[in-house]
């Protein structure tokens, strides 16, 4: 496995192979800007888990209002079991939180970052269309 130093040296060589504006900038300044392998892996896993239509549909509803499993299931035309399964995954990656009220459990987005992420992606896709 290549170390960060090996990758850095290869990057330096690739960037020095022909004239361009980066030749005047010490390439070491970019070392602090690149994701670590560990963080990149965690982010890739996060986005992989987000790549599910039903999870995104659940988030789209929770972006507007907290809802219980039975309401989510009815709106999405899914079984409560299927919705619960998706919510477990969303809880595991800390995108949703829940609050028990009597016998019902209400779900909402974890925090404003999740809402902003959802809204940003939705807005970006609307602009592209």
From TrEMBL:
- Looking at the keywords, is Nucleotide-binding present? no
Gene3D superfamilies the UniProt entry points to:
Winged helix-like DNA-binding domain superfamily/Winged helix DNA-binding domain (1.10.10.10)
Cite the SMART domains for this sequence.
Answer: HTH_ARSR
Q: Which UniProt keywords apply?
A: DNA-binding, Transcription, Transcription regulation
Q: Tell me one GO molecular function of this protein.
A: DNA-binding transcription factor activity
Domain HTH arsR-type per the UniProt entry, residue ranges? 35-129
- Pfam families to which the protein is assigned, alphabetical: HTH_5
Q: Which NCBIfam families match?
A: HTH_metalloreg
Query: Record's PANTHER family?
Result: ARSENICAL RESISTANCE OPERON REPRESSOR ARSR-RELATED, HTH-TYPE TRANSCRIPTIONAL REPRESSOR CZRA
Q: What is this protein called?
A: Transcriptional regulator, ArsR family
Give the organism, scientific name.
Rippkaea orientalis (strain PCC 8801 / RF-1) (Cyanothece sp. (strain PCC 8801))
